[in-house]
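Form 7-S
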Amino acid sequence: SDKVLDALERRMLARVDDFKPQDLANTVWAVAMLMNNIEGDKITINQNVLDQLLHQLEATEFSTLEEQHFQQIFQAHHLLGDRFKPSAALLDQAREEWAKQLASRS
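Output:
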């Protein structure tokens, strides 16, 4: 429901400064998956929420993120398109980790 989503958005914005880098990557990925799995675009996330999460991610030391977190960032970028635009540096790192995962599967 819209009320639940509004409450979730307010909570994320209120706590975004306290998130660990890994939590940021997990949250961005979860939001992307949620939006992607809802049929008929019945749900939208406030762009400010995505922008704040991305801003916090960009401010982190990339060395604090693990392979899976970069993969989550890459997936979120793919699922959200223009609504979630990581910097070139962050996106390149995420793309590299995604490629490593694909290579390890073959």
